[in-house]
Fold this sequence. Notes:
The complex is a heterotrimer of chains A (244), B (293) and C (338).
Chain A: E1 4-13, E2 16-26, E3 31-35, H1 42-49, E4 57-62, E5 65-66, H2 72-77, E6 80-82, H3 95-103, H4 110-123, H5 139-152, E7 157-161, H6 169-184, E8 188-192, H7 196-202, E9 205-210, E10 213-218, H8 220-225, H9 227-234, H10 236-239
Chain B: H1 2-32, H2 39-57, H3 61-88, H4 97-117, E1 133-136, E2 139-142, H5 143-165, H6 167-177, H7 179-184, H8 189-211, H9 221-236, H10 241-261, H11 267-281, H12 287-292
Antiparallel strand pairs in B: 1-2
Helix pairs in contact in B: 1-5, 1-8, 1-9, 1-10, 2-3, 2-4, 2-8, 2-9, 3-8, 5-6, 5-8, 6-8, 9-10, 9-11, 10-11
Chain C: H1 6-21, H2 24-49, H3 58-75, H4 82-101, H5 106-126, H6 128-131, E1 137-138, H7 148-169, H8 172-182, H9 184-189, H10 194-220, E2 222-223, H11 225-228, H12 231-245, H13 252-269, H14 271-275, H15 277-291, H16 295-304, H17 312-318
Amino acid sequence: MSYFEIKELVKTFGGLTALYEINLSIDQGEIVGLIGPNGSGKTTLFNCINNFCTPDRGQILFKGQRIDGLPTHQICKMGIARTFQIVKPLKRLTVLDNVMAGAFLHTNDEKQAREKSLAVLEFCELSHRKDMLGKDLPIADKKRMEVARALASDPELLLLDETAAGLNLKEIERMLEIVMKIRQSGITCLVVEHVLKFLMGVSDRVMCINFGREIVTGRPQEVMSHPEVIAAYLGAEYATGRLH
Amino acid sequence: MSLLLQALVGGLLLGGIYALIAIGMTLIMGVMRIINLAHGALMVMGMYISYALFVHLGLNVYLGMFVAVPALFCVGYILQKFIIRRVTEIVTVLPETQVLLTLALGLAIVELLRIIFTSNYQTVEIPGISDKAFYFAGISMSYPMVIGFVGALVLIAGLHLFLTRTDMGRSIRATAQDSEAARYMGVNTRKVTCITFGIGSALAAAGGILLLPAYYLYPGVGNAFTLKAFIITILGGMGSTVGAITGGVLLGVVESLTATYWSMGYQDLLGLIIFLLVLVFLPGGLQTLLKRK
Amino acid sequence: MRRGPIKYIVPGILAVALPFVLPGYYMHMLILVLLWITLATAWNLLGGYAGQVSFGHSLFFGLGAYGGGLLFYYFGISTWWGMLLGPIWAVIVAIPIGLITFRLRGPYFALAMLAMAEVARIIFNSWTTFSNGAVGIMISRTWGGNKLPYYAIILAIAGLTLYVTRRLVRSKFGYYFLSIREDQDAAEALGIHSTRYKLYALIASVFFTALAGAFYMNYMAFIQPDVVFDLTDISIMMILCVMLGGAGTEWGPALGAAVYVLLAECFRTVPVIKEVHLLAFAIIIIGIIMFLPDGIIGSWDKVSRCFVRPPAAETAAAGQFEPGPAAEEEVRKPEAEL
């Protein structure tokens, strides 16, 4: 029985097929990367896992239990947390309060939630921002707060949606370190990324999709040199070497 | 049987005028995405202008429309330009401030009218028309209602032509679909929103005045009509001309039947209940029912 | 806002002493102030904290009032039992309403509530056999002209409402309400059952609104559907109080309520202005929306936060820019255990 499994997932919007027979299985403790050009369906896949949209066909299983179609908050309670591609800070709350909103998932006690949140903020190197309002943060900190908030809910599986997008090199390094720390603490991750440096540095395996279909899944090096993957990003001519 | 027919016809005529009143709100909602709770108040303002001209100058209310309707266009334009537009750009803790704003504006207008004209119910006489009626197959249709119905259809048709055949009309429709894209295409969306609000107010006033000879006038009548216009907009789906007509006629007929067979007091009730049902179960308006079939 | 018991002592003394100090007429005003403090604070729970703006809270006020009124009308029982029945049946009605309408976003929720209040008003007006119709229900007052017991009761109610609000807001509930308000999708992704928590906010809000309504029945000794289910005088004025004082703050609604009642009194007593009081309030609402959208307390935080850091719930209402820590230090902290 696989730790996390997506079976034959299909999602359509009106006449458009966003995802077609996607299969993916993730082992506990792995970090799996998900890549594909814009519009290939990556965020839709996340939204299906999280039930922001309900799959048309197929199954999603977590620790042997079906989670497709369950309400989003319940999926979170079962141990799956996510960040959003376009960050969603709770704008008029402080950073600490943002994280506490996540921390309250497993406790009713304010003190406990606060302690946990402070610890998570330390972990994500955001302690110095704890009293700043969500909307006043620079983008790199917003992204880290998003990760911190998700971590505060004690997930077993963390879905990271383009956490490195829009960051400069130094910030990407820092984010990379945090994700490695997350892995060390035993949390499984599924990471959507465009920034290849980030992805390659972090993933055990990578899946590439395009037009909602799986192209290839395997070790990062294999995937990156796969001709269809290169074609998807850079064009068929480049892939077959004709451009040079 | 003839009672039923009478009620239906009465409802139809009334519904046409309701549609005219509602179409302004639909337009405003479609273009500016705001819910204009001042709609009824603007309608009443137009009615009072016409009424005042009738009382002081003896001017026939139908002619008075030529003064009141442009006047309300200006009022709407100014309100949008100086007040409403400012508020849509402010983000506050309470998300519904824009709706509250139009509500307060409506309240202010109605109160102003009440202070000037008092709460007394007023009626308007048009010699030779007010008391006459058509008789057809045992059904009576009062002159004012028929004129109102025809006038409403003419104005709605005019609006449709305006929206489809003129440049400004196209700009309005573009802004309704995607205001940012429209702006990139060179549409002056600020002006478009002001003009839209002006047109919406003017049409509401026109509808009210067409209704005037068959109704009575008092400041509070605006509130009832805001709610009716909103019900029709939800029933017919936002931003849809045809939807407004369907919704208007439906509401008119429902009210007429309720008043005839149940009681006057309850006629508003059924409209409200239908409105709530549609709001909750048919988010796109009645059209979603038709599409499913 | 200073912490500690100090800030309760002064209002506490005032609250107890005032009725003995002021002439009888002002008692009525004090009672009204406390009534509106209750209403505004109750509305704020749902609208200011949970972000669900309802334009139809008069529905629950009326149900609270008629809770007692109908008991008297049908069974001749004292309307004081309405203080129990009113809130209970209001909450029972509110739950299905919430479940149905919470699916609606923003303005549609607000207007659906408005429509429900109107439906109630029409039914109570027209269904004469049920509610005695537009004529209303009249009782004889328990304590006649003596206002002091009524003052004590409404003081207790207002205090209870404020207390419960404070406790809720500083607990998990408060954080969850605010999260739902700020971003419902993000809240769901954090495991927050948004419908359930909106329902909690609704229940608390409705309970106190209806309690105020039940008190109203007993105090005024006369209710009519057109009064207790009124859109402008009840539903909208509740919102006015909250906006004036500051939505999403603990004391904002109370402040707004006090200002509202005082203003209304001023209008009432000056003969000329009496006519225009609704117009004046409409203009005030417009003014607040345009120039002071976060209310008095909501904007006050900008000033007071320079001195003291208030707890989360009050910070959340302010939405003002706070100058962050001066330098962004690259401090390498030892890795914390998760």
